[in-house]
Amino acid sequence: MRSKVVYTDEIDEIEDAVEVILDEFEGFEFKKNSLAIIFMEEDVEYLELYKGLREKWDFPIIGCTTTAMLISGTGFRSDGVSVMVLTADDCKFVAGVTGELTRDNYEKSIGDLYGDLEEKLGEEEKIIISYGVCVTAKNHVSADDLLAATSNACHGKPIIGGLASDRFNFEDTRVFHNDTMVKNGMVMALLAGDFEPKYIRVTSIDASVSPQTYEITKSNHNEVMCLDGEPMMDVLARENFEVGKTDVLREYLLTPFIVTMPQPDGGEIQAARNLSLINHENKSGVFLGAMPEGSKLQIGFINKDGVMATLDEALKDMRAYLDKSDYDYSTILCTSCAARYLALSTRIQVEATDWLATLPSNLNFFGMYSNGEFCPVPDQVSGTDYNTFHNFTFVMLAL
After folding, report:
1. Which DSSP category does 352 fall into?
2. Does residue 346 have a pLDDT over 70?
């Protein structure tokens, strides 16, 4: 599998953006099958962009809006359009997107989409690349809902990707496939053939603010009512956190909640969670991911040094794996949490210029900053990988 990555800041005139992209791909050898992934700022007229690209490209295009991008050869960009094309003779790609999702239809819609793609693919996929949108405050379809529905449909095949993002207004996120753009939906691509996907993720959490570990004693999916039998809002107030507002996603972007969740086989997996809402009527907290009863919860924090250290850790692990592998990798697809973006602040470019740039020169890297990440996590007992939703995490997929 080969790839090429292109970027343009020409977005005011979409015709110019199309021309730049197609010119940059001039001379690139497209193999029998190809897939394009596009990350873009929220102001881009995607449907016009697709219309122009479609005149030359007859393969599927997927993607989403993002706060910022990581682009091989270009570095970090917070505006414009970035495009990656994967191409191969010995691999197959199929892609699609749901319609607008609601609490009532999301499981069937995602299941139907996967079933259609599975039939079109005609063989077993090795990896699924997927991006979604969930607006918990409005329709209560959490990121875990989206991921669980996808994982159930594909019988636990590994899913890599995350949630679309925007400039932190949480209202202009979109996903798209070919000529369809959806505001609250799920886009996915199934990849099959002769390649060896390798994924690595690290969570950028330094330490707990408090050494205390709480048990979630009462919850309803992603809403936590009680910790150790006490209303969650009271616990947050005692820990000196913001409890006066209802919509607290911005206030808690740099305050991860570390949840350790029991699994059916008796093991457990750990993930970070972001608090979205505080319900003052029942003193509960609503998270972007599932918070099952019986799970353990700690409050952590994220800062600049921790973000950089964890990315260094992930890159060392990836480089060590690539050095030992006989497979000829060409691409690193990245998903970095928007909270990492905020934590790095004025040093945000180091992820692309000082860290990802240390990857072997024959590797293209391409990524986006998300409102949450999808990556499998091994059960600490059985070692079985479970598709898991994360916050405050950096994910890399080598192809």
Report:
1. I
2. no
